[in-house]
Amino acid sequence: MSFLPGLQSLENNLDGQLEVVYCNFFKLDPGYHGWSTPPIMDSVELFKKLDISAVPWTADVPVKIFGIIPQGKERNLLWKLIYALYECRSIYHCGRVELNMIMSEKEYKVLTAKPGEQMRRYQALSVLWQTGCEIQLLHMEPRSSFLTNSKTPRLPRPGSQITNDHLCLVRMTPRRNLFTGAMTDATSLTFIMMVKQCLIKQKSKLIDIINTWNLGNGYKVLEQLEIPENILTGHLYPEEYRGIFEVLDRSLEFDRSLLFNDVFKNTRNRSFVF
After folding, report:
1. Cβ-contact 225, 202 below 8 angstroms
2. CA distance 259 to 253
């Protein structure tokens, strides 16, 4: 808020080359339908004001957004954005919006974690962001480079393998081929729930979880994808999770209601954003 008058003064002296809109990006689409005033705004109204039109998903990136994800709210905001991405809501209603965000090293390493050797940090967010976006680290800077009045950020637990002493500028570009095959903005919620259920515990046997949704036919699903029957959920790559989703979508035995019931039962006391 303190920098707004300076920006508006700059706008007045640039002969239309700069347009200043007072809006908090991280408070877009607050989740209710009613009158909102800046900095809280509806993304459709904001994009209309900026004269940004919707384009097909496979078209070029229509807009690039740069920002700093507020510390302490990163996880919830990353969940909010990933739901919006897969359902083509909020900023993604107009196409493959590119995000260039400064975030903590801890969250960057979660988003880019690999299965197996990085199982401690390999989570549902890892699979969903890697499936949905190309993720590129543009720059990493020590926290000591930033002047801040806030307290020292909370460090990982003793013994944790996740360091958190840098801030990272990360580019997240939605994939052109995200919505192909069984994946659509209407079916993607099933994929999200499937991944979340599988990675609640990374050392669970994948076949046991699939059997609960597919009436004991988990071995058929894994056989089609040439995945070992004894594999753990934390050892499966994002593309393999998508493959399982595609196979289940074609299965007549797949009971989506069981999947959703399992997710809500196991996440009732967890801080996931829905």
Report:
1. no
2. 12
- The single-letter code of the amino acid at 148 is T
Q: What's the confidence (pLDDT) of residue 95?
A: 97
Residue 272 has what pLDDT?
38
Gap between the Cα atoms of 101 and 82, Å rounded? 14
Among 201, 209, 203, residue whose Cα is nearest residue 262: 209
Read off φ and ψ for residue 171, nearest 5 degrees. Answer: -100, 130
Structure tokens at 6: 């300076």
Q: Which pLDDT tens digit goes with each residue over 124-135?
A: 999 999 999 999
